[in-house]
Design a protein that fits this description.
By secondary structure, the chain is mostly helical. It contains 6 helices and 4 strands; from the N terminus they run H-H-H-H-E-E-E-E-H-H. Residues 159-172 have low confidence and may be disordered.
Length: 174
């Protein structure tokens, strides 16, 4: 009885069941992809077909254009960095497909971060290490304000207070 789990299955049975589940998942994904491709192929114009087949590429290009307008794309950004940025957009799309929850690409440090009174306080960069894929609702909740906590009300000449001022607020999800 030592080689059986709590449901009475041997390790071989568990492995066989896992392999069967994996095959079913792959078959389902292939079926969904074929159905989606058939739907896209049935669209009346090539523009509509392009629109649906290149959703991630269009999002990436639009974000790069917006960031360039804000001077948030550094000159030293390499092709490898651009590929990493594109991969974050792919991850957001994949998370949306897998979870069914819309995901967006978020700037950890916003391109134009504002304090609670609406004044710009920080400018982030559109670089791979400043991006992450998060649920749409959390991105909207976070908005464009940048939390700097108590530091907003501290006199900068008192440096000993600055170390304690950059903590996080428990109400902020990230």
């Amino acid at each position: 009885m030592d080689d059986m789990n709590e449901r009475g299955m041997t390790p071989e049975q568990v492995a066989a069941e896992a392999a069967e589940a994996e095959l079913e998942t792959l078959a389902y994904e292939a079926l969904r992809k074929a159905e989606w491709e058939a739907w896209v192929a049935s669209l009346p114009t090539k523009h509509q077909r392009y629109y649906h087949r290149n959703k991630v590429q269009r999002s990436f290009e639009a974000a790069m254009a917006r960031a360039k307008k804000l001077n948030a794309v550094p000159d030293w950004l390499t092709d490898a960095h651009r590929r990493q940025i594109f991969e974050v957009y792919e991850a957001a799309d994949t998370l949306h497909d897998v979870t069914g929850i819309p995901h967006e690409v978020d700037h950890i440090v916003q391109l134009v971060g504002k304090n609670k009174s609406g004044e710009p306080v920080i400018c982030g960069l559109h670089v791979p290490w400043n991006l992450r894929a998060i649920p749409w609702s959390l991105n909207r909740k976070r908005g464009d304000w940048f939390y700097i906590g108590v530091a907003e009300s501290i006199d900068p000449s008192h440096e000993e207070h600055l170390d304690a001022s950059f903590g996080t607020d428990d109400d902020i999800p990230f």
